[in-house]
Amino acid sequence: MPLLIRNGEIVTADSRYRADLWCEDETITRIGPGLAAPPGADVIDATGKLVFPGFIDPHVHIYLPFMGTFAKDTYETASRAALVGGTTTLIEMVCPSRSDDPLEAYELWKSQAAGRSACDYAFHMGVTRFNDMTPQLLERIVADGTASFKVFLAYKGAFGINDNELFQTLALARRLGVIVTAHCENAELVWQLQQRLLSEGRTGPEWHEPSRPTSVEAEGVQHLATFAQATGAHVYVVHTSCSEVLAAAQQARGRGVRIWVETVIPYLILDRSYAERRDFEGAKYVMSPPLREKSHQHALWNALAAGEIDTVATDHAPFDFHQQKEMGRGDFTQIPNGIPSVENRVQLLYSYGVFTGKIDLHRFVDVAATKAAKLFGLFPKKGTIQPGADADLVIFDPAHESRIAAATQQMNVDYSAFEGWPIAGQVDTVTVRGRIQVQDGKFVGQQDYGRMLRREPTHGA
Ligand code: URP
Ligand code: ZN
Ligand code: ZN
Predict the structure, then answer these.
(1) Do 266 and 291 form a contact (C-beta atoms < 8 A)?
(2) Using CA of residue 240, residue 242, residue 248, residue 253, what is the dihedral sign?
(3) pLDDT tens digits for 100-127?
(4) 240 CB under 6 A from ligand 1?
(5) CB 61 near ligand 1, within 6 Å
(6) Rounded Cα gap, residues 367 and 436, in angstroms
(7) For residues 346 and 85, what is the distance between their CA atoms, to the nearest angstrom?
(8) Distance (Å, rounded) from C-alpha 402 to C-alpha 305?
Protein backbone atom coordinates (compact mmCIF):
# COMPACT_ATOMS: atom_id res chain seq x y z
CA MET A 1 0.00 0.00 0.00
CA PRO A 2 1.34 3.50 -0.81
CA LEU A 3 2.60 5.45 2.16
CA LEU A 4 2.81 9.18 2.81
CA ILE A 5 4.93 10.49 5.66
CA ARG A 6 3.99 14.09 6.32
CA ASN A 7 5.92 16.99 7.71
CA GLY A 8 8.90 15.19 9.22
CA GLU A 9 12.41 16.59 9.39
CA ILE A 10 14.47 14.46 7.04
CA VAL A 11 18.06 13.88 8.13
CA THR A 12 20.70 12.20 5.98
CA ALA A 13 24.50 12.10 6.17
CA ASP A 14 24.67 15.47 4.41
CA SER A 15 21.27 17.19 4.54
CA ARG A 16 18.47 18.22 6.87
CA TYR A 17 15.14 19.64 5.72
CA ARG A 18 11.40 19.45 6.33
CA ALA A 19 9.39 17.65 3.64
CA ASP A 20 6.82 14.97 2.91
CA LEU A 21 7.89 11.55 1.67
CA TRP A 22 5.89 9.49 -0.76
CA CYS A 23 6.63 5.75 -0.94
CA GLU A 24 5.26 3.28 -3.44
CA ASP A 25 6.33 -0.14 -4.76
CA GLU A 26 8.91 -0.50 -1.98
CA THR A 27 10.77 2.69 -2.89
CA ILE A 28 10.78 6.40 -2.12
CA THR A 29 9.16 7.95 -5.17
CA ARG A 30 8.75 11.64 -4.26
CA ILE A 31 10.08 14.05 -1.67
CA GLY A 32 8.68 17.56 -1.35
CA PRO A 33 6.45 19.95 0.54
CA GLY A 34 2.68 19.47 0.73
CA LEU A 35 2.37 16.18 -1.18
CA ALA A 36 -1.27 15.11 -1.59
CA ALA A 37 -2.34 11.67 -0.36
CA PRO A 38 -4.33 9.65 -2.87
CA PRO A 39 -7.27 7.65 -1.49
CA GLY A 40 -6.24 4.43 0.24
CA ALA A 41 -2.73 5.53 1.17
CA ASP A 42 -1.36 5.04 4.67
CA VAL A 43 -0.58 8.47 6.10
CA ILE A 44 1.81 9.09 9.00
CA ASP A 45 2.06 12.50 10.61
CA ALA A 46 5.73 13.01 11.51
CA THR A 47 5.38 16.56 12.84
CA GLY A 48 8.04 17.16 15.49
CA LYS A 49 9.88 13.96 14.51
CA LEU A 50 13.13 13.25 12.70
CA VAL A 51 13.09 10.93 9.69
CA PHE A 52 16.29 8.93 9.19
CA PRO A 53 17.24 6.34 6.58
CA GLY A 54 16.86 2.81 7.94
CA PHE A 55 20.01 2.05 9.92
CA ILE A 56 22.45 -0.67 8.91
CA ASP A 57 24.33 -2.89 11.32
CA PRO A 58 27.27 -4.26 9.31
CA HIS A 59 28.52 -6.71 11.95
CA VAL A 60 26.19 -9.11 13.73
CA HIS A 61 26.16 -12.76 14.73
CA ILE A 62 22.81 -14.52 14.78
CA TYR A 63 23.45 -18.15 13.94
CA LEU A 64 26.76 -18.71 15.72
CA PRO A 65 28.18 -21.99 16.95
CA PHE A 66 31.00 -20.69 19.16
CA MET A 67 33.01 -21.69 22.23
CA GLY A 68 31.04 -24.89 22.80
CA THR A 69 27.58 -23.33 22.54
CA PHE A 70 25.31 -21.34 20.22
CA ALA A 71 24.41 -17.65 20.28
CA LYS A 72 20.86 -17.33 21.58
CA ASP A 73 19.02 -15.36 18.93
CA THR A 74 17.26 -16.68 15.87
CA TYR A 75 16.43 -14.55 12.85
CA GLU A 76 12.92 -14.17 14.27
CA THR A 77 14.13 -12.60 17.51
CA ALA A 78 17.19 -10.75 16.18
CA SER A 79 15.37 -9.12 13.26
CA ARG A 80 12.51 -7.94 15.49
CA ALA A 81 15.05 -6.59 17.97
CA ALA A 82 16.91 -4.84 15.16
CA LEU A 83 13.73 -3.24 13.84
CA VAL A 84 12.40 -1.90 17.15
CA GLY A 85 15.87 -0.44 17.57
CA GLY A 86 15.76 1.29 14.17
CA THR A 87 18.01 -1.09 12.23
CA THR A 88 16.47 -2.21 8.94
CA THR A 89 19.43 -4.09 7.45
CA LEU A 90 21.72 -6.60 9.14
CA ILE A 91 24.97 -7.94 7.73
CA GLU A 92 25.76 -11.23 9.41
CA MET A 93 29.10 -12.99 9.62
CA VAL A 94 29.08 -16.52 8.22
CA CYS A 95 31.50 -18.33 10.56
CA PRO A 96 32.25 -21.92 9.47
CA SER A 97 34.61 -23.98 11.55
CA ARG A 98 37.87 -24.91 9.83
CA SER A 99 36.59 -28.39 9.04
CA ASP A 100 33.31 -27.22 7.46
CA ASP A 101 32.77 -27.08 3.71
CA PRO A 102 32.46 -23.33 2.95
CA LEU A 103 29.62 -23.71 0.45
CA GLU A 104 27.62 -25.93 2.80
CA ALA A 105 28.20 -23.47 5.61
CA TYR A 106 27.10 -20.58 3.44
CA GLU A 107 23.87 -22.40 2.54
CA LEU A 108 23.31 -23.28 6.20
CA TRP A 109 23.63 -19.63 7.26
CA LYS A 110 21.31 -18.55 4.46
CA SER A 111 18.75 -21.17 5.48
CA GLN A 112 18.67 -19.77 9.03
CA ALA A 113 17.51 -16.43 7.66
CA ALA A 114 15.28 -17.37 4.73
CA GLY A 115 11.61 -16.88 5.53
CA ARG A 116 12.36 -15.85 9.13
CA SER A 117 13.75 -12.34 8.98
CA ALA A 118 11.54 -9.31 9.45
CA CYS A 119 14.29 -6.99 8.20
CA ASP A 120 16.57 -7.14 5.17
CA TYR A 121 19.92 -8.87 5.53
CA ALA A 122 23.17 -9.78 3.83
CA PHE A 123 26.29 -11.77 4.72
CA HIS A 124 30.04 -11.46 4.98
CA MET A 125 31.56 -14.84 4.07
CA GLY A 126 33.95 -16.10 6.72
CA VAL A 127 37.14 -17.62 5.28
CA THR A 128 38.41 -19.89 8.03
CA ARG A 129 40.80 -21.98 5.91
CA PHE A 130 42.22 -21.75 2.41
CA ASN A 131 43.10 -24.66 0.13
CA ASP A 132 43.06 -25.43 -3.61
CA MET A 133 39.25 -25.61 -3.68
CA THR A 134 38.68 -22.31 -1.88
CA PRO A 135 38.95 -19.87 -4.82
CA GLN A 136 36.25 -21.56 -6.89
CA LEU A 137 33.93 -21.91 -3.89
CA LEU A 138 34.38 -18.28 -2.89
CA GLU A 139 33.82 -17.17 -6.49
CA ARG A 140 30.45 -18.94 -6.41
CA ILE A 141 29.56 -17.26 -3.13
CA VAL A 142 30.50 -13.82 -4.50
CA ALA A 143 28.46 -14.55 -7.64
CA ASP A 144 25.52 -15.34 -5.35
CA GLY A 145 25.69 -11.76 -4.03
CA THR A 146 27.87 -12.09 -0.95
CA ALA A 147 30.58 -9.64 -1.97
CA SER A 148 32.66 -9.37 1.21
CA PHE A 149 34.79 -11.74 3.24
CA LYS A 150 35.60 -12.07 6.94
CA VAL A 151 38.85 -13.36 8.39
CA PHE A 152 39.84 -13.93 11.99
CA LEU A 153 43.43 -13.40 13.06
CA ALA A 154 42.29 -14.44 16.56
CA TYR A 155 40.64 -17.64 17.87
CA LYS A 156 43.55 -20.04 17.45
CA GLY A 157 42.30 -23.54 16.60
CA ALA A 158 38.75 -22.33 15.83
CA PHE A 159 38.12 -19.64 13.17
CA GLY A 160 41.68 -18.28 13.02
CA ILE A 161 43.71 -18.52 9.80
CA ASN A 162 47.48 -18.59 9.31
CA ASP A 163 49.57 -16.12 7.31
CA ASN A 164 49.62 -18.26 4.20
CA GLU A 165 45.82 -18.38 4.23
CA LEU A 166 45.58 -14.67 4.98
CA PHE A 167 47.77 -13.81 2.00
CA GLN A 168 45.80 -16.04 -0.35
CA THR A 169 42.45 -14.74 0.88
CA LEU A 170 43.51 -11.12 0.42
CA ALA A 171 44.98 -11.80 -3.02
CA LEU A 172 41.75 -13.51 -4.10
CA ALA A 173 39.65 -10.67 -2.67
CA ARG A 174 41.73 -8.19 -4.64
CA ARG A 175 41.16 -10.18 -7.83
CA LEU A 176 37.40 -10.43 -7.20
CA GLY A 177 37.04 -6.79 -6.08
CA VAL A 178 35.61 -7.62 -2.67
CA ILE A 179 36.49 -6.09 0.68
CA VAL A 180 37.85 -8.24 3.53
CA THR A 181 36.62 -7.56 7.05
CA ALA A 182 39.01 -8.72 9.77
CA HIS A 183 39.05 -9.51 13.48
CA CYS A 184 42.51 -8.31 14.42
CA GLU A 185 44.18 -9.80 17.48
CA ASN A 186 47.38 -11.83 17.42
CA ALA A 187 46.14 -15.33 18.21
CA GLU A 188 49.46 -16.68 19.47
CA LEU A 189 49.96 -13.79 21.89
CA VAL A 190 46.43 -14.20 23.22
CA TRP A 191 46.97 -17.89 23.78
CA GLN A 192 50.32 -17.42 25.52
CA LEU A 193 48.99 -14.68 27.80
CA GLN A 194 45.89 -16.71 28.65
CA GLN A 195 48.03 -19.71 29.67
CA ARG A 196 50.28 -17.53 31.80
CA LEU A 197 47.38 -15.92 33.66
CA LEU A 198 45.61 -19.24 34.25
CA SER A 199 48.82 -20.80 35.57
CA GLU A 200 49.05 -17.92 38.05
CA GLY A 201 45.53 -18.72 39.28
CA ARG A 202 44.01 -15.67 37.57
CA THR A 203 40.76 -17.21 36.40
CA GLY A 204 37.98 -14.58 36.74
CA PRO A 205 36.44 -12.44 33.98
CA GLU A 206 38.55 -9.47 35.12
CA TRP A 207 41.58 -11.26 33.56
CA HIS A 208 40.06 -11.33 30.09
CA GLU A 209 41.35 -7.83 29.28
CA PRO A 210 44.91 -8.44 30.49
CA SER A 211 45.01 -11.57 28.33
CA ARG A 212 44.28 -9.45 25.22
CA PRO A 213 45.95 -6.07 25.79
CA THR A 214 45.71 -3.19 23.32
CA SER A 215 49.16 -4.05 21.94
CA VAL A 216 47.83 -7.46 20.84
CA GLU A 217 44.99 -5.79 18.94
CA ALA A 218 47.31 -3.19 17.39
CA GLU A 219 49.70 -5.94 16.28
CA GLY A 220 46.77 -7.62 14.52
CA VAL A 221 45.92 -4.43 12.64
CA GLN A 222 49.53 -3.76 11.65
CA HIS A 223 49.75 -7.35 10.44
CA LEU A 224 46.59 -7.02 8.38
CA ALA A 225 47.72 -3.69 6.93
CA THR A 226 51.08 -5.14 5.89
CA PHE A 227 49.35 -8.00 4.09
CA ALA A 228 46.82 -5.60 2.53
CA GLN A 229 49.68 -3.46 1.24
CA ALA A 230 51.43 -6.48 -0.27
CA THR A 231 48.29 -7.76 -1.99
CA GLY A 232 46.48 -4.49 -2.76
CA ALA A 233 43.37 -5.80 -0.99
CA HIS A 234 40.80 -3.45 0.57
CA VAL A 235 40.38 -4.23 4.26
CA TYR A 236 37.98 -3.28 7.06
CA VAL A 237 39.00 -3.64 10.70
CA VAL A 238 36.02 -4.81 12.75
CA HIS A 239 35.32 -3.93 16.39
CA THR A 240 38.12 -1.45 17.10
CA SER A 241 38.44 -0.93 20.83
CA CYS A 242 41.47 1.29 21.40
CA SER A 243 43.57 4.28 20.40
CA GLU A 244 46.57 2.14 19.34
CA VAL A 245 44.50 0.62 16.55
CA LEU A 246 43.36 4.05 15.39
CA ALA A 247 47.01 5.09 15.15
CA ALA A 248 47.95 1.90 13.28
CA ALA A 249 45.11 2.42 10.79
CA GLN A 250 46.06 6.07 10.26
CA GLN A 251 49.66 5.07 9.62
CA ALA A 252 48.57 2.44 7.13
CA ARG A 253 46.30 4.93 5.33
CA GLY A 254 49.26 7.30 5.18
CA ARG A 255 51.22 4.77 3.16
CA GLY A 256 48.32 4.15 0.80
CA VAL A 257 46.70 1.07 2.32
CA ARG A 258 42.97 0.93 1.61
CA ILE A 259 41.77 0.36 5.16
CA TRP A 260 38.51 1.25 6.91
CA VAL A 261 37.69 1.13 10.60
CA GLU A 262 34.62 -0.03 12.49
CA THR A 263 33.96 0.34 16.18
CA VAL A 264 31.04 -1.16 18.05
CA ILE A 265 28.68 0.41 20.53
CA PRO A 266 29.96 -1.37 23.69
CA TYR A 267 33.45 0.19 23.35
CA LEU A 268 32.01 3.69 23.10
CA ILE A 269 30.11 3.54 26.37
CA LEU A 270 31.39 0.67 28.52
CA ASP A 271 34.88 0.32 30.00
CA ARG A 272 36.87 -2.52 31.53
CA SER A 273 35.55 -1.87 35.04
CA TYR A 274 32.29 -3.57 33.95
CA ALA A 275 34.18 -6.81 33.28
CA GLU A 276 35.71 -6.47 36.77
CA ARG A 277 32.31 -6.60 38.52
CA ARG A 278 32.11 -8.95 41.48
CA ASP A 279 30.39 -12.34 41.75
CA PHE A 280 31.10 -13.25 38.12
CA GLU A 281 28.82 -10.38 36.99
CA GLY A 282 31.78 -9.24 34.88
CA ALA A 283 31.17 -12.21 32.55
CA LYS A 284 28.24 -10.31 31.04
CA TYR A 285 30.80 -7.87 29.68
CA VAL A 286 33.32 -10.32 28.21
CA MET A 287 33.81 -9.79 24.50
CA SER A 288 36.84 -9.74 22.23
CA PRO A 289 38.68 -7.49 21.89
CA PRO A 290 37.90 -6.66 25.53
CA LEU A 291 36.40 -3.51 27.03
CA ARG A 292 39.24 -1.06 27.68
CA GLU A 293 40.28 1.71 30.05
CA LYS A 294 37.95 4.70 29.90
CA SER A 295 40.56 6.87 28.14
CA HIS A 296 40.07 4.82 24.97
CA GLN A 297 36.42 5.89 24.84
CA HIS A 298 37.49 9.50 24.44
CA ALA A 299 39.83 8.52 21.61
CA LEU A 300 37.06 6.57 19.88
CA TRP A 301 34.52 9.40 20.13
CA ASN A 302 37.05 11.92 18.84
CA ALA A 303 37.95 9.65 15.94
CA LEU A 304 34.27 9.13 15.19
CA ALA A 305 33.65 12.88 15.07
CA ALA A 306 36.78 13.42 12.95
CA GLY A 307 35.82 10.77 10.38
CA GLU A 308 38.69 8.43 11.29
CA ILE A 309 36.19 5.74 12.25
CA ASP A 310 33.88 4.80 9.40
CA THR A 311 31.10 2.79 11.01
CA VAL A 312 29.50 1.92 14.34
CA ALA A 313 28.21 -1.66 14.43
CA THR A 314 27.29 -3.93 17.33
CA ASP A 315 29.10 -7.27 16.96
CA HIS A 316 25.85 -8.54 18.46
CA ALA A 317 26.63 -11.98 19.97
CA PRO A 318 24.09 -12.93 22.65
CA PHE A 319 24.88 -15.57 25.26
CA ASP A 320 22.73 -16.04 28.39
CA PHE A 321 24.37 -15.06 31.64
CA HIS A 322 22.90 -17.94 33.62
CA GLN A 323 23.55 -20.95 31.42
CA GLN A 324 26.16 -19.89 28.93
CA LYS A 325 28.49 -17.27 30.42
CA GLU A 326 28.48 -19.62 33.44
CA MET A 327 30.53 -22.11 31.38
CA GLY A 328 33.55 -19.92 32.09
CA ARG A 329 33.24 -19.70 35.87
CA GLY A 330 36.66 -20.79 37.08
CA ASP A 331 38.32 -20.18 33.68
CA PHE A 332 37.74 -16.87 31.90
CA THR A 333 38.95 -18.34 28.59
CA GLN A 334 35.79 -20.45 28.48
CA ILE A 335 33.32 -17.55 28.86
CA PRO A 336 31.45 -17.28 25.54
CA ASN A 337 32.56 -13.96 24.06
CA GLY A 338 29.93 -11.41 23.15
CA ILE A 339 27.68 -8.58 24.30
CA PRO A 340 24.11 -8.40 22.95
CA SER A 341 23.23 -4.97 21.55
CA VAL A 342 21.52 -5.15 18.14
CA GLU A 343 18.39 -3.64 19.70
CA ASN A 344 20.22 -0.81 21.47
CA ARG A 345 22.87 0.49 19.03
CA VAL A 346 20.90 3.35 17.48
CA GLN A 347 19.34 4.57 20.72
CA LEU A 348 22.67 4.41 22.57
CA LEU A 349 24.57 6.16 19.79
CA TYR A 350 21.94 8.89 19.69
CA SER A 351 21.73 9.25 23.49
CA TYR A 352 25.45 9.11 24.29
CA GLY A 353 26.75 10.57 21.02
CA VAL A 354 24.29 13.07 19.54
CA PHE A 355 22.40 14.11 22.66
CA THR A 356 25.63 14.72 24.58
CA GLY A 357 27.09 16.70 21.66
CA LYS A 358 29.96 14.33 20.82
CA ILE A 359 28.82 13.85 17.23
CA ASP A 360 26.27 15.69 15.11
CA LEU A 361 23.19 14.20 13.49
CA HIS A 362 24.89 13.84 10.11
CA ARG A 363 27.83 11.85 11.49
CA PHE A 364 25.28 9.76 13.38
CA VAL A 365 23.48 8.84 10.15
CA ASP A 366 26.75 8.34 8.29
CA VAL A 367 28.37 5.97 10.78
CA ALA A 368 25.19 4.04 11.56
CA ALA A 369 23.84 3.74 8.02
CA THR A 370 25.33 5.52 5.01
CA LYS A 371 28.99 4.53 5.16
CA ALA A 372 28.22 0.85 5.66
CA ALA A 373 25.89 1.00 2.64
CA LYS A 374 28.68 2.53 0.57
CA LEU A 375 31.42 0.17 1.72
CA PHE A 376 29.35 -2.98 1.31
CA GLY A 377 27.67 -2.33 -2.03
CA LEU A 378 24.20 -1.38 -0.79
CA PHE A 379 24.21 2.35 -1.61
CA PRO A 380 22.06 4.17 -2.74
CA LYS A 381 19.21 1.65 -2.37
CA LYS A 382 20.06 1.57 1.33
CA GLY A 383 21.65 4.12 3.64
CA THR A 384 20.04 7.34 2.43
CA ILE A 385 16.75 9.08 1.67
CA GLN A 386 16.30 10.00 -1.97
CA PRO A 387 13.92 9.13 -4.81
CA GLY A 388 14.66 5.61 -6.00
CA ALA A 389 16.05 4.42 -2.66
CA ASP A 390 14.32 1.61 -0.76
CA ALA A 391 11.67 3.05 1.55
CA ASP A 392 13.56 1.97 4.70
CA LEU A 393 12.76 4.78 7.12
CA VAL A 394 13.00 5.46 10.83
CA ILE A 395 10.65 8.04 12.32
CA PHE A 396 12.30 9.14 15.54
CA ASP A 397 10.80 11.11 18.41
CA PRO A 398 13.63 13.18 19.96
CA ALA A 399 11.43 14.32 22.88
CA HIS A 400 10.86 10.86 24.37
CA GLU A 401 12.77 9.55 27.42
CA SER A 402 13.01 5.95 28.63
CA ARG A 403 15.30 3.38 30.23
CA ILE A 404 16.70 0.11 28.87
CA ALA A 405 15.38 -3.05 30.51
CA ALA A 406 16.05 -6.71 29.72
CA ALA A 407 12.49 -7.51 30.83
CA THR A 408 11.04 -5.72 27.80
CA GLN A 409 13.70 -6.39 25.17
CA GLN A 410 13.13 -8.39 21.98
CA MET A 411 16.61 -9.97 22.00
CA ASN A 412 16.44 -13.56 23.18
CA VAL A 413 18.95 -13.27 26.01
CA ASP A 414 18.53 -13.14 29.78
CA TYR A 415 20.29 -9.85 30.53
CA SER A 416 21.05 -6.40 29.19
CA ALA A 417 24.55 -4.97 29.44
CA PHE A 418 22.82 -1.57 29.66
CA GLU A 419 20.16 -2.35 32.26
CA GLY A 420 18.53 0.83 33.57
CA TRP A 421 20.49 3.16 31.30
CA PRO A 422 18.56 6.34 30.41
CA ILE A 423 17.78 6.83 26.74
CA ALA A 424 17.02 10.07 24.92
CA GLY A 425 14.60 9.80 22.02
CA GLN A 426 12.65 6.86 20.74
CA VAL A 427 12.35 4.90 17.52
CA ASP A 428 8.67 5.41 16.83
CA THR A 429 7.88 3.99 13.39
CA VAL A 430 10.05 1.87 11.10
CA THR A 431 9.39 0.92 7.51
CA VAL A 432 11.17 -1.69 5.44
CA ARG A 433 10.72 -1.16 1.71
CA GLY A 434 7.60 0.88 2.42
CA ARG A 435 5.96 -1.58 4.78
CA ILE A 436 5.34 -0.47 8.38
CA GLN A 437 7.16 -3.01 10.55
CA VAL A 438 7.28 -0.99 13.79
CA GLN A 439 4.63 1.38 15.12
CA ASP A 440 4.70 3.24 18.46
CA GLY A 441 7.97 1.43 19.19
CA LYS A 442 6.37 -2.02 18.85
CA PHE A 443 6.85 -4.68 16.19
CA VAL A 444 3.60 -4.87 14.21
CA GLY A 445 4.97 -6.20 10.95
CA GLN A 446 5.33 -9.27 8.85
CA GLN A 447 7.85 -11.72 10.25
CA ASP A 448 9.04 -13.09 6.91
CA TYR A 449 9.16 -9.77 5.02
CA GLY A 450 12.96 -9.49 5.10
CA ARG A 451 14.91 -10.20 1.97
CA MET A 452 18.48 -11.26 1.34
CA LEU A 453 20.36 -8.40 -0.31
CA ARG A 454 22.61 -9.53 -3.13
CA ARG A 455 25.58 -7.26 -3.63
CA GLU A 456 28.00 -6.62 -6.47
CA PRO A 457 31.76 -6.38 -5.83
CA THR A 458 32.55 -2.67 -5.40
CA HIS A 459 36.23 -2.75 -4.43
CA GLY A 460 37.79 -3.32 -7.82
CA ALA A 461 39.53 0.04 -8.22
O1 URP B 1 33.34 -11.19 21.56
C2 URP B 1 33.00 -11.23 20.40
N3 URP B 1 33.43 -10.30 19.60
N4 URP B 1 32.17 -12.23 19.99
C5 URP B 1 31.71 -12.50 18.70
C6 URP B 1 32.75 -13.11 17.81
C7 URP B 1 33.68 -12.08 17.25
O8 URP B 1 34.86 -12.11 17.52
O9 URP B 1 33.26 -11.20 16.51
ZN1 ZN C 1 35.50 -10.65 16.19
ZN1 ZN D 1 31.91 -10.44 15.42
Answers:
(1) yes
(2) positive
(3) 999 999 999 999 999 999 999 999 999 9
(4) no
(5) yes
(6) 24
(7) 6
(8) 26
Q: Rounded CA gap, 243 and 255, in Å?
A: 19
Question: Measured in angstroms, how far is the CA atom of residue 59 from the centroid of ligand 1?
Answer: 10
Using one digit for the tens of pLDDT, what is the confidence trace for 145-171? 999 999 999 998 889 999 999 999 999
How confident is the model over 41-68, as pLDDT tens digits?
999 999 999 999 999 999 999 999 999 9
SS3 call for 142: helix
**Burial class for 46, CB neighbours closer than 10 Å (0-12, 13-18, 19+):** buried
Ligand 1 atom index nearest CA of 159? 8
Between the CA of 94 and the centroid of ligand 2 the distance, in Å, is 12
Ligand 1 atom closest to 93 (CA): 9
Which ranges of the chain have pLDDT less than 70?
A: none
> Beta partners for 87?
55
- Identify which of 354, 341, 343 has the alpha carbon closest to the alpha carbon of residue 424: 354
Report the C-alpha gap between 259 and 228 in whole angstroms: 8
- Cα-to-centroid distance, 233 and ligand 3 (Å): 21
